[in-house]
Amino acid sequence: MPIKNRLADLHPEITGWRRHLHANPELMYDVHETAGFVVERLKEFGIDDITTGVGKTGVVATIKGKSDSKGRVIGLRADMDALPITEITGLDYASTVPGKMHACGHDGHTAMLLGAAKYLAETRNFDGTVVLIFQPAEEGGAGGKAMCDDGLMDRWGIQEVYGMHNAPGIPVGTFAIRPGPLMASSDDFEIVVTGKGGHAASPHDAIDTTLVASQIVVSLHSIVSRNIDPLKSVVLTVGTFKTDSDASNIIAHTVRMTGTVRTLDSEYRAIAEDRVRRVATDIASAYGATAVVNWAPGYPVTINSDAETQHAIEAARAVAGNVDEDTPPIMPSEDFSYMLEERPGAYMFLGNGDTAQCHHPAYNFDDEAIPVGCSWFAEIVERRMPAA
Ligand code: NI
């Protein structure tokens, strides 16, 4: 079965919603108008079980099937937030808010989940309950974690959860996914090294913090090459390095550096943290300096569970027929990972065609992908919870 006929009929209406959202982007948790728009549409569809303020500004709504003989509950998730980017597309529905833009296609994700909701509320051709999850703050604010911390999975009894992201560079109408790790974890660190400042001509009276910190940088780069299985994927980058002095004749007293660790293997997050801490503090100690390491855990690895990945693939095949079932993992991170830590599920890439990359000021979601994405959401529900 290809695109669902009803969703093809709804294509212009859903496109209208998408363009409205595109013109009115909101950031992080400040998605009040977007959440309000979602709630208005859901009410129009006759959906009355709607909860707002989940994870600060998330929206959760349920649709009951024609029957509920087995108590099955499936969650479908879309993200609602935009990015602090100034749009340069020149579209007639371009952002009306200076410095804010839907440059990651979350306008498309929200519109597609609304489209699937309208179809599912009309047809109810399934046995069980669908939980619609509209989350804030995917772009660095861990809105998915906030919703989980608010009891999302237990309060609504979600058993499996599915989400998707548009993918520039993949043709519209094509899906891509893989079982296991799909997107990387992202942890940040800060190291503040303190030696003893002094005169550049009298190093014996100082502890040269710049030299100590430089040794730390060099040794940090031994972690990936010497402590990680060469067949695994870990990236460590020191992104900033600043001394507290701008003068050539001063030995700095402190140096602050920051960096990031990305990996597709969760076990290496802990190993990398432990090694960064030891390398920094022990090297500083060897020189008579001190190092304070602050570790800021970010999004976990996005890991698709095996069975649900197969369900996602079967639904995608039914809709589009064109599915890359073993797409290479990518190193950006995604906070749907928090939902996948709590429940089995799968995250799917949906082709967005030959557009600018996500987070680029010329990016735009391709509206031709709408019926494909909506049909995939609906197909999963109807396949996983077939009408009794
Ligand atoms: Ni995104």
TrEMBL record:
Residues 188-285 form the Peptidase M20 dimerisation domain. The Mn(2+) ion enhances activity. Mn(2+) binds at residues 104, 106, 139, 165, 359. SUPFAM superfamilies: Bacterial exopeptidase dimerisation domain, Zn-dependent exopeptidases. InterPro entries: Amidohydrolase (IPR017439), Bact_exopeptidase_dim_dom (IPR036264), Peptidase_M20 (IPR002933), Peptidase_M20_dimer (IPR011650). It comes from the Bacteria. Keywords: Hydrolase, Manganese, Metal-binding. Pfam families: M20_dimer, Peptidase_M20. GO terms for biological process: diaminopimelate biosynthetic process. GO terms for molecular function: metal ion binding; N-acetyldiaminopimelate deacetylase activity. Its cofactor is Mn(2+). NCBIfam families: amidohydrolases. This is Amidohydrolase.
